[in-house]
């Protein structure tokens, strides 16, 4: 499948993964998981404002922060016991943070297929990826509608 | 009252004192396969329930020959004490233990509390992946007495014998069937196998440190729902991993003589043409 029009940073990550061996994919995912940023203090105190992602077996919460230029910054709350989900969320945050809601909404839900992640992790996990992306889009849409 | 077979459990203190025993092999089996590379118990090796323990094509476990290869590569002999631990209160550790038993490895144990308790006690975790001298492991023929297939489950249901559904209450009631974004694991129908009682797996463990509940608590939990030791019991969940924990509890902690895990579970039953369903 030919993927066009992905946001440039996300495209770069997808291309990188596409050329990696299984071991490199795992190592890169681990590096993303280990670089997973802690929740900012102002959100730690307001966890209940965050949206839960029920499709994930891991408790995932996310919050979309609208910036002055109306770009969106995503914050995730995912327990350290779930490094795979942390790694996947970090990939999405790296690829999409700072973009406008309209740009986020154009990301196809199967954008990750060329990454061939199924060589490294189970389908079930990859599907969690789709769940997180769907909720990021939902949050982007809400922010576009001024919520 | 104590567990009926306490020899199937070790605690963190015991394991910490036996990390270097040549006849002990520690195996980490997690839901999240990245946990092991990020840090594991010193000397532990990893099996992944999906990439190591499943058949590459069919919906089944690895074959006996493949199991022998896996066990040989982990340096296991028939006399090795294999201690399993993992995340999620030992879900996948119990699954791996069940599979080792299926192929006849008798000397198996679960680390009570699993990864969570080891971490809580701030015990050492390392990144070094050890390697052990390869052995020539010979597995036994599959032990079907611990694994239930669909026809047996149907018979169990129609003859009103005990079935335990260990999924969450919403999966049991049929409210949750087609979880969005979970196409590969979906079932086309929701509900439960007729006659199955709902005892979610997590009720068997303490939330605080993932250890198993006391023998008294466990007995009250299962007997209270009519699941007694005098009849054959079949446990199931969605794909057979959560129910292997319940299988372990019934078989070894409570000593029920005849317990099977139905690994086809709801992803098979909820798709099976003509299978009876209750809601």
Task: Explain what this protein looks like in three dimensions.
The complex is a heterodimer of chains A (147) and B (279). With 147 residues, chain A is mainly alpha-helical. Chain A starts with 7 loop residues before the first helix and ends with a helix. Chain A has 6 helices and 3 strands. Chain B has 279 residues and is α/β, with parallel strands linked by helices. Chain B has helices at 12-17, 35-38, 64-73, 91-102, 114-120, 150-158, 169-173, 215-223, 242-253, 265-269, and strands at 9-10, 24-28, 45-46, 81-85, 108-111, 163-165, 197-198, 233-236, 259-261. In chain B, strands 1-5-4-2-3 form a 5-stranded parallel sheet. The longest helix of chain B has 12 residues, at 91-102. Chain B starts with 8 loop residues before the first strand and ends in a 10-residue tail after the last helix. The chains are: A mainly alpha (147), B alpha/beta (279).
Instruction: Kindly report how far apart the N and C termini of chain A lie.
Output: 35 Å
Helices of chain A, by number, come to: 6
Intertermini distance of chain B: 37 Å
User: How would you classify the helix and strand content of chain A by structural class?
Assistant: mainly alpha
Strand order of the largest sheet of chain B: 1-5-4-2-3
Outline of chain B, from the CA principal axes? globular
Largest sheet of chain B: 5 strands, parallel
Beta fraction of chain B: 5-15%
Mean model confidence by pLDDT of chain A: 87
**SSE string of chain A:** HHHEEEHHH
Which spans of chain B have pLDDT < 50 for at least 5 consecutive residues? 178-184
- Major sheet strand order of chain A: 1-2-3
* Low-confidence runs of chain A: none
Roughly how much helix do the residues of chain A carry, as a percent range? 40-55%
Query: What is the ordering of alpha helices and beta strands of chain B?
Result: EHEHEHEHEHHEHEHEHEH
Query: What is the quaternary state of this protein?
Result: heterodimer
Alpha plus pi helix count of chain B: 10
How many strands in all of chain B?
Answer: 9
Largest interface: A-B, 24 and 19 residues
